[in-house]
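Entry 14. Structure prediction run on the chain below.
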Amino acid sequence: MRWMDRWAARAQRKADIRRARWQERQQEKARSGRMTIMDRWASRAQRKADARNAHWQRVEPLRKLVPRGPVAGPGGSKVFISVEQTGLWWLTRWWKNPVPPTGGGGGLLSIALIVSALISEAIWWLVFHRTYTVHVRTNDRPKVKISVRLPDEVAAYKAAVILVSRFPADGPAALQPWQTAVTASNQGPVHLSGASEGGTH
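Output returned:
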């Protein structure tokens, strides 16, 4: 276990203890009728934090199984796999390579950034329904590019893990069956049981 993993586990234990104590105090206040507006606001904020933490605990183990670099297959074939929010590629690219401000327009740039983020969030909700896309690209000649949209981040990473597990043995031949299976699962409830088939590499 790496020191970062030990640190994260220790931080998680402390967070769990703090949350348990906080929930106990809130229950005592609720039973005694001493809940205030601030208490209700704090309770709502805590529920959101708990939901984010639960989501992170579901996604993070899957994210670690999808390498940032290429996945090697037979015959020197390689595949690059990434998971991104659908439709926000331009904002992600801007964040990675922001245009440096010129002159004294730093305040305007900050405002423009906030407005862009809000607009992007609205577009993501209304147009793309907060979906995630798995992008796949090989180094073959000709190159193969596949993009598969899935209803949430967990489903997208599960699909990516399936491909990571299959490509080392099957190479590019794994792409079409993988895309067919993922697309079919996307028509109804997402259930990618193949995530454990063949192991992970």
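Residues 188-201 have pLDDT under 50 and may be disordered.
Filed with the rest of this week's runs.
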